[in-house]
Write a structure and sequence with these properties.
The structure holds two protein chains of two kinds. By secondary structure, chain A is α/β, with parallel strands linked by helices. Helices cover 32% and strands 31% of the residues of chain A. The termini of chain A are far apart. In chain B, α1 runs antiparallel to α3. Classes of the chains: A alpha/beta, B mainly alpha.
Chain lengths: 252, 358
């Protein structure tokens, strides 16, 4: 589905991604973890083709990302950046309808409006369809951005910290929704800080540290020594009713 | 009816309201255009006016309408469309509510380019009388020169936007710098000019729709028609760009090409207006914001809405310019500034909750 081979990237000569190799299977729900500055957002941008790797390759469906046009890529892969504001007011319906952009040649058609309405109802956003996006709460806005991503009908969705600045309920609602999408066959890759949220909802994990993959795989990769080494925080891993929790005890 | 159908219906009603505004704006433009033909130092009754388009009517009135007022009204319509839509597009691609040909210094750059062509290349001849102070002998050279210099200002803006971000502060500062630079360069040309040339250029910098005739109008239409079609063709991409560069890119928009092409074409549209009629300020800034207040910022409606409102605004201002102290005719550029500046302040102060622009 998505294959990274020896991907490297540097901002103004400062290396941020240092040779990452990884494959994402179809329908996987992967958490991209790591401390601030570890390269999570940059890696998402590289996968989406917003940035071009200076070495190595990123392939989607067997094709190099660089050889895929922006429009074609938008049909395959949706990207939800961190919190964003429109410069000018836009309704929720128009924002989600924008997700149809890669399919629109002249103007949105009947199908585009129908798909938009279906997604709004599915995500419970129908009551606010004609509200101004900028006047919604952070949680609602994030749901609208995910709805817009769904309107692209992609096979991959990348999200950069979709739960940042959200309250507990919205954090869980967003991740639950993403889990459902993955179950439906969409490959979901989410950059996230909260280890416990990731553990609860994601099935695969990649822990980045200083632009390199320190650990990857299922929940068994989490070890107290590893977390302490990467984050500089002593933790205790607790298992309760089949679930795993990481409790910080004290910083180093 | 399913919930999905209900939502679609609600949205259809929402967009139909915007469509109705477009029809109203078209009607207002048409009415103002008719008034523009009828009113002036020599008023023509509406019945006389309509008979002119048949076989009847006075010969004197026919001459006034066909040779003076019709090209002037059409120049107002075409220039209003060009400046307003350029303002909309600049605001969209720079994601900056303060974008407009005037505030970004592009109008001043084009004015310098036109003056440069007239004085240095001898593309115009000078008279000391008012209405035909500068006669454009070679409009192609004037337009090309205006376009060239407006491109210089345009690239300056894109350079700053690329390196420092297109924040309102950066854009306004760049606009002030560009305006000051090109005003200084125009002053330098004026310094080199003789008295008649100086008087002519000073007069010429006031935007005035009487400067052009049918030929200038034709050139404008030939240049602006494909430009406006291009802008309208990309209306959906401009909507995507408003959500941010990364989002727009992920929605399939080639943002680099879109932004560069839009700025170049908006500069060209501005240059065609400035090179023939002089600087007409505030139209490209105020009209888009007035229209945004009424129909929102969806470019599918904003572009045609601003085009119609811009045309109506220009024709309306020109009517006032011709009738306010009749028989004297004021340059329309003075009117657009006098009306536009306080109107923009009013829009800023009376903004819906002050949170219209983020």
């Amino acid at each position: 589905m998505i294959t990274l081979s020896g991907v490297q990237f540097a901002y103004n000569g400062f290396p941020v991604i240092k040779g990452i190799t990884h494959s994402f299977a179809k329908g996987s729900f992967t958490a991209l973890l790591g401390p601030n500055g570890s390269g999570k957002s940059t890696l998402l941008r590289l996968i989406n083709g917003i940035l071009t790797p200076q070495a190595g390759t990123v392939e989607v469906m067997g094709r190099s990302v660089g050889s895929i046009s922006a429009r074609e890529m938008a049909r395959e892969m949706a990207y939800v950046p961190q919190m964003q504001y429109n410069t000018f007011p836009a309704t929720v319906f128009d924002t989600v309808l924008l997700g149809r952009n890669p399919y629109i040649s002249w103007s949105p058609g009947k199908d585009d409006r129908r798909i938009t309405a279906e997604i709004l109802v599915r995500l419970g956003l129908d009551d606010i369809a004609l509200k101004d996006l900028n006047k919604l709460s952070g949680g609602q806005r994030q749901q609208v951005f995910i709805a817009r991503a769904l309107a692209q009908q992609p096979s991959v969705i990348l999200l950069d910290e979709p739960t940042a600045n959200l309250d507990l309920r919205h954090q869980h609602e967003i991740l639950l929704l993403l889990g459902e999408l993955a179950t439906g066959g969409i490959t979901v890759l989410v950059a996230i800080h909260d280890l416990n949220l990731a553990l609860k909802y994601c099935s695969e994990f990649i822990i980045l540290d200083d632009g390199q993959v320190r650990a990857e795989g299922g929940s068994d990769i989490f070890r107290e020594e590893l977390i302490e080494d990467i984050y500089g925080v002593r933790t205790k891993i607790i298992r309760h009713e089949g679930e795993m929790f990481i409790l910080p005890t004290e910083p180093l | 009816m399913s919930r999905e159908n209900e939502i679609e219906k609600q949205y259809a009603r929402f967009t139909e309201r915007k469509g109705r505004y477009l029809w109203l704006a078209a009607l207002a433009t048409l009415l103002l255009a008719v008034l523009g033909l009828a009113l002036g130092p020599s008023s023509i009754s509406l019945s006389d006016l309509f008979s002119l388009f048949g076989s009847g009517g006075e010969e004197l009135h026919r001459g006034i309408v066909m040779q003076i007022r019709l090209p002037r009204v059409l120049a107002g319509i075409v220039s209003g469309i060009a400046l307003s839509v350029s303002g909309v597009v600049m605001q969209s691609v720079l994601r900056n509510p303060l974008g407009s040909p005037f505030t970004l210094g592009i109008s001043n750059a084009a004015a310098f380019g036109a003056a440069f062509a007239v004085i240095i290349f001898g593309a115009g001849s000078m008279n000391s009388s008012s209405n035909d102070a500068v006669l454009i002998a070679n409009p192609y050279v004037v337009t090309l020169s205006a376009f060239f210099w407006s491109l210089i200002a345009c690239f300056l803006i894109l350079l700053v936007a690329r390196h420092r971000g297109a924040t309102p502060e950066n854009m306004i500062l760049t606009g002030i710098i560009a305006s000051s630079l090109f005003t200084a360069l125009t002053a330098a040309i004026q310094y080199l000019a003789d008295d008649v040339q100086l008087a002519a250029i000073v007069f010429w910098t006031f935007g005035d729709l009487s400067k052009g005739g049918w030929r200038e109008l034709m050139i404008q239409v030939i240049i602006l028609l494909p430009v406006m079609i291009y802008f309208y063709r990309n209306r959906w991409n401009y909507n995507a760009l408003d959500a941010g560069d990364e989002t727009a890119r992920s929605l399939g928009v080639n943002i680099g090409r879109l932004r560069l092409t839009a700025m170049i074409l908006a500069s060209l549209a501005t240059a065609t207006v400035v090179s023939f009629y002089g600087i007409i300020a505030f139209v490209g800034l105020v009209v888009p914001h007035m229209v945004r207040r009424v129909i929102g910022s969806d470019e599918r409606f904003l572009i045609p809405g601003a085009a119609l409102a811009g045309a109506a605004f220009m024709v309306g201002c020109d009517i006032v310019a011709r009738t306010l102290i009749s028989p004297m005719v004021l340059p329309v550029g003075i009117l657009t500034s006098v009306i536009g500046a306080p109107l923009f302040i009013l829009l800023l102060v009376k903004g819906k909750g002050g949170a219209q622009w983020k």
